[in-house]
């Protein structure tokens, strides 16, 4: 009898030990990572990289720190923005260092613990290895790991952040990558209206959404399968060939049959992640459904599901399209987009930002005609600012074009070498953002995002060459990364600026 009790106690004790281990190894700390009850088991190897609060914090700091890129200007967060479902807002292609463009559309980051491969072509099999690719890619961060580690070791904050996360100050590739993974693994998106409906949390889908769900199951779920809305396979969905050829999966495995095939993407948060497809060719879900309904292109690579019974594409009436879109919208997870703990502002360590004045040189145009051009350009700039702030998108596009053309009249041959090199570099930046403002005709937010960067470059020109004979003022708001030039010393209180309530405004004067 006594023995039995002992045995039972021993067994219980053993179970407790086992259970507590599983909690640590399996990351059952609900605050960091929890499996939503409507999701399958994740595939990530948590056992070799258990999440800890400190590890996630380190990963988040690295994710938002531009120190990882060669010229300290681009962070993971530049191309993966929370407000855009961790893809890049409004961009078909993203710009990395020196404003070079990526060849593919940045991917949204969420539910990575369930993915079996990473990238549009699935070229990387382990999340822990993924970060190496953007870091070393010349059009993304253009850096190498040895340099990154060196910069981190010499920084003020990182040795102690690594110590908190991994027990010693040692900074190595493995720890660096594991920390980044830890943060990215916490990005679970499972709180959309659809999820709450599936988990019966008192939320109902309306008639249209339910009809859309049924249609989706019949017409889309063979590829966009299950609760993750992908079967993680690689397929060709009949997009018209792009101007610049992208062979997709073939680039990874050289299999002829995998040419032009791309990963079936998940479909959560589409309301935030436009544009769509591997090259960001579609701006709207209507365009996506029009593609499936009538524009699927036949080729030897086209998925058999999209050419059944000799018919190309998926038959969809306009009513069915509307219903499917209504359903897709129930997959938007507003909670995920706004969750404070994913944001840069929740960081415990403030990432030092380069001061814009560090990049201002003392240079001269040495030419009256140039002074005149600069002052004329400034007028276009100020009008452009008004249009951006009033959300007059078409007018802003016209003015951005005028500004770029006006500045381009500066005759570089008449500048000394230092001035020429600097002018060209800054001008390129301005032309780049002006282009986006021109293209972004219908997207006020997109224009707004690019105007801040354009203003920073206008400031660089004005402060370096001092062409104006009146003082100018540069306002910088840390909150929205927005900045602008003005000839008013109290512009923060004018009717055009006031409604924006920019926080933490910093003002600098550029004296003639
Ligand atoms: C210049 C823009 C840019 C930067 C900077 C960038 N990414 Fe990306 N990211 C992309 C693009 C583009 C893709 C798609 C790549 C492809 O398919 O070739 C991508 C894909 C990914 C994926 C794959 C997601 C999936 O579902 O398969 C992960 C993970 C990722 N990035 C993480 C990171 C991390 C971590 C960093 C910082 C170290 C980073 N990215 C920096 C643009 C960027
Ligand atoms: C034969 C498989 C297949 C079927 C069926 C299918 N898709 Fe896709 N879908 C894909 C693939 C593959 C991609 C990525 C293609 C690319 O970028 O080259 C994709 C991309 C998308 C995207 C873009 C997502 C993003 O983040 O860029 C949306 C939206 C989408 N599909 C919706 C649907 C809807 C709605 C249906 C049903 C009407 C559907 N798909 C049916 C395979 C499929």
TrEMBL record:
The lineage of its organism: Bacteria, Pseudomonadati, Bacteroidota, Cytophagia, Cytophagales. InterPro entries: Cyt_c-like_dom, Cyt_c-like_dom_sf, Cytochrome_c_Peroxidase/MauG, Di-haem_cyt_c_peroxidsae, DUF3347. Gene3D superfamilies: Cytochrome c-like domain. The keyword Oxidoreductase applies. Keywords: Heme, Iron, Metal-binding, Oxidoreductase, Peroxidase, Signal. SUPFAM superfamilies: Cytochrome c. Residues 207-332 form the Cytochrome c domain. PANTHER family: BLL6722 PROTEIN, CYTOCHROME C PEROXIDASE-RELATED. It is found in: Cell envelope. GO terms for molecular function: peroxidase activity. This is Cytochrome c peroxidase. The keyword Signal applies. It comes from Flectobacillus roseus. It comes from the Bacteria.
